Amino acid sequence: MNPPPRRLPTPDDHRSAFAAALAVLTAEFSAYLDRDSADPVADLVGYRQHAVWLNPGELHGMIDGMREAIAPPTWPTNHHPTARST
Question: What is the three-state SS of the chain?
Fold first, then answer.
């Protein structure tokens, strides 16, 4: 049997996913601020949005660079890129 075709997300699906992501971000930031040791200035906390004008190649290059900079430090020390951890 073939699995049913996957449906592409609708604009409302994207709105819901974005709202959920913002809710998690807000909850995590609130938990951080609730700590006695929270110091946004010393911790270099930032929440700016920047507009960028890039062609597709530049955009993919920027995303790849961000993944290289952000993802590896967040992996556990025993991380194996081909193994999925849950």
Answer: CCCCCCCCCCHHHHHHHHHHHHHHHHHHHHHHHHCCCCCCCCCCCCCCCCCCCCCHHHHHHHHHHHHHHHHHHHCCCCCCCCCCCC
| Amino acid found at 24 | V
What are 14-44's pLDDT values in tens digits?
Answer: 999 999 999 999 999 999 999 999 999 999 9
Q: Which residue has the tokens 């073939």?
A: 2
This prediction has a pTM of 0.62
Total Cβ atoms within 10 A of residue 46: 6
